[in-house]
Amino acid sequence: MAAVGFAFLQASNRKSNQLIDAYRTSFGLLAAVEVALLIEITLFGDVDLIFDAPMSAVALFSVASFFHFVGGWTLLALSQQRIGVARTGALVSAAPIVGTLVAAIGLDEPLTIAVVGGVTLAVAGVALISLSGGTSGSIGWRRPWLGLTVALIWGTTPWLIRLGLQRFDHPVEGLTIGLAFSVVAYAALLTIGGAWRRSVPPTAIRWMAFGGLCGAIAVSGQWISFDLTTIAIAITVQQLSVIFVIALVPIMFRQPFERMSPRFFTGAALVLLGAGLVVLI
Q1: Domain assignments of the chain as residue spans, ordered by start
Q2: Tens-place pLDDT, residues 11-21
Q3: Given Cys at both, which of 87, 130, 141, 207 links 16, Cβ 3.0 to 4.6 Å?
Q4: Mean pLDDT for the chain overall
Q5: What is the pTM assigned to this prediction?
């Protein structure tokens, strides 16, 4: 569920990012996700639980959300601007390796041969898919630390989320609490930077609203998966989103399908094999 939701979220982000800058796009998506989450827990959850969360859990959820969304999404956009989408995707694909190692050290999760092999296959597959389109003109591997920092952040935040869930075992409500802090913090940063002086096209608002709905489903599934299974399984299976994105973008935007090179098919097979390995063995 998270993988499919993230695919729609990335497609929506790609469309709105063509209309306004990456910073306001990220904030708009975060705000839309928060609104959708509030509606979700009002209709299907328990809003009162939010006020019962211990402060230690609130702090962990807030820190994890801020680094994952505000820090991770912003650095991702900056990396894509500097070294391109493909190379950034290849660097960020290291997140499952970081997440698996951090969970093994910090949460004592099993680090079996099957888990290590599955994570490695999935990471290699995502990297191959990301690079299957070839190079982008003269753009090189300048400032790779941006993409690697995103991988470090996205590999570490699941550990913080799990620690928070050990104190407050309600993933969706915990996510809503943490994301609220991120939305407020991001709004303050944009206000300081004077980002509100430029208007936002209505089309961009519609894409961000759609992305927020998809994002709420995706991130809810992500946090629930962190609560129900090991981080290695959750974060590796979610790499399937890269395959769904390749299929969704041409359909949603009426663009030609990306050229399916042998490298792409090899990468897709590795992602599927790696995800299956960590789940089934």
Answers
A1: 2-280
A2: 777 777 777 87
A3: 207
A4: 82
A5: 0.82
